[in-house]
Design goal:
about 550 residues; Rossmann fold; 3 domains; 25 strands; globular
Length: about 550
């Protein structure tokens, strides 16, 4: 890196200055929009920088940032980086004891906290917690004396983001300035492709917590552009908030897109009559492609004129695309949105890869794939079809865990732990997770994710975990809120799934849980992934009973 340093933060500040009195960041509060202009956001940043300076925090110190998404979260994050503070973002909904462990592990000098309730939760879980400062206090401080933001060197740490910890304790991933600078250049290139020819500010909606690497990189990408970013403040009102925000694009997780698809299709079925018939025939034609019959092709053409525009309008009349990552998206769901005329662009990556390795090219999307490796990144398959990655996006190491770092980074390649395949077009597909492989006592290896995905797709609203390591066959745990799935439905879905699978991958028994797997119960990670060890421990007796009954 040249002596000029890494300037991603300066680019964001210049963008805010150029915006002046125009809105750049806003929140939806009780169905009303509250905005901050570029100038107002810079003022909030200056006040937070004043607080940091007044409290003796210096460049290189680590500080935790604990809050839900807000304009103040973004301002304080930027202020901390501008002062050279290494930001440790945390998930406000995570269990206090888990948050306390991360705070202590990171050696944070201070906790920047949204409100008194969160502060009391942390102090109750951690007697050794550092000083806690509330947002109200931070943004009420006199602005710092005007001076340039820190100009990072390439190896300077910018953030420590704790991984989800699907098994075992979470690890702090250290991302440095060159990681962030490289990734922002790549994401803005893709957004340029998507928005090519569009005039005026881009409209972006955002609901995913900023403590996740992909969500944080998205925020910095948007702030680097001529964008107006609308933040969700109530996840129970996402549909209304999307309508108010009227975005051009936004980042998603598969669960939301699958809920949207189910709601639309349920609504069409409920209407019945010619609308339901037209939709069924149009969908059949779209999925059949060139093999569709003449009548179905006519139905598809009619639906594109009479039905799909109405559906698109309810989802967002200005939507150019939906961006999706974090977990596998059902191919049927991706094709559903394409059928409506709304492309779904998939991305794949981990915290350790600065959130992204692959990202769909808007000009060429293959449903079921997560796109090609982004320019400047190398990807290949290793032993057991494990995806290996190297490039400027690869993290510098796990915080205070040299042995873990050495296991993950070998000969310049990061071992993702994910299994995949790549086609002749260079498009990648994620097929499983190596450490989740189930080894049956027959010697067969089974990746549970594809089976879980298919079952969940057949049982809308359900969560599925396959069990079978060390046993002679597979069983399933199916969780569903409010008993939305009954035994008859589960049986039918398993029979349908089993019919497509070889004998050793078929499910022989299942247990229906009364309550869903949640973050609060400790059975989901902060970003919604299954904590397999915790779930297996919680349902140990039910799992043992399934195997005992089959053995009788």
């Amino acid at each position: 890196m040249s002596s000029a340093g890494v300037a991603f933060l300066q680019n964001i500040f210049q963008r805010l200055e150029a915006a002046g009195d125009a809105p750049v960041l806003q929140e939806i509060r009780s169905e009303k929009i509250v905005s901050a202009s570029g100038r107002e956001l810079l003022t909030l940043i200056a006040r937070a920088r004043g607080f940091i300076a007044a409290n003796g925090l210096k460049s290189g110190d680590r500080c935790a940032l604990l809050a839900a998404n807000s304009m103040r979260w973004a301002a304080i994050d930027l202020a901390m980086m501008a002062q050279g503070i290494v930001v440790v973002p945390l998930y406000a909904r995570q269990a206090p004891r888990e948050l306390a462990a991360m705070i202590l592990d990171s050696g944070a000098k201070r906790i920047f906290c949204e409100n008194a309730e969160l502060r009391e939760a942390i102090l109750g879980a951690c007697r050794e917690a550092p000083a806690v400062s509330l947002f109200d206090e931070i943004v009420a401080t006199n602005p710092a004396e005007a001076r340039p933001a820190k100009l990072f060197e390439s190896s300077d740490p910018v953030t420590i983001i704790y991984t989800s910890g699907t098994s075992g304790e979470a690890k702090g991933v250290v991302l440095n300035a060159v990681n962030v600078d490289f990734m922002l250049a790549r994401t803005t290139e893709r957004l340029d492709q998507l928005m090519k020819g569009s005039a005026g500010p881009e409209r972006v909606f955002h609901y995913l917590p900023f403590n996740f690497a992909a969500s944080w990189i998205a925020l910095l990408s948007y702030l680097s552009r001529n964008s107006v970013i609308t933040l969700s403040t109530d996840l129970s009102k996402l549909a209304d908030e999307m309508r108010i925000a009227a975005p051009n694009y936004f980042l998603n997780v598969p669960a939301l897109l699958e809920r949207v698809r189910a709601k639309v299709e349920d609504g069409i079925r409920a209407k019945g009559g010619w609308i339901a018939v037209l939709y069924a025939k149009a969908k059949q034609a779209y999925l059949a492609g060139a093999e569709a019959g003449f009548g179905d092709r006519i139905a598809l053409a009619a639906a594109r004129k009479l039905l799909f525009p109405t559906v698109r309008k309810t989802l967002g009349p200005q939507l150019k695309a939906l961006i999706c990552g974090s977990a596998p998206l059902a191919v049927e769901t991706q094709k559903f949105f394409f059928m409506l005329g709304i492309p779904v662009l998939q991305a794949y990556g981990l915290t350790e890869t600065t959130a992204i390795c692959t990202l769909d090219d808007p000009a060429f999307v293959e449903p079921g794939c997560v796109g090609p490796a982004i320019p400047g990144i190398e990807m290949k398959l290793g032993e057991n079809q494990e995806i290996l990655v190297r490039g400027p996006n690869i993290f510098s190491g796990y915080w205070n865990r040299p042995e873990e770092t050495a296991k993950a980074l070998r000969n310049g390649w990061f071992h993702t732990g994910d299994q995949g395949e790549v086609n002749q077009n260079g498009r990648w597909k994620i097929t499983g997770r190596i450490k989740n492989l189930l080894v049956l006592n027959s010697g067969h290896n089974v990746a549970p994710e594809p089976i879980e995905e298919e079952l969940a797709n057949l049982l809308p609203g359900a969560q599925v975990m396959i069990v079978g390591n060390g046993h002679s066959y597979l069983v399933a745990l199916i969780a569903s809120a409010n008993s939305a799935v009954n035994r008859e439905q589960a049986n039918a879905a398993i029979e349908t799934t089993n019919a497509r699978l070889p004998h050793y991958r078929q499910i022989r028994a299942f247990h229906l849980a009364d309550e869903p797997f949640t973050v609060e119960s400790g059975m989901l990670t902060a970003n919604g992934k299954l904590k397999r060890d915790a779930i297996a421990a919680h349902f140990r007796s039910q799992i043992e009973e399934m195997y005992r009954k089959r053995a009788q």
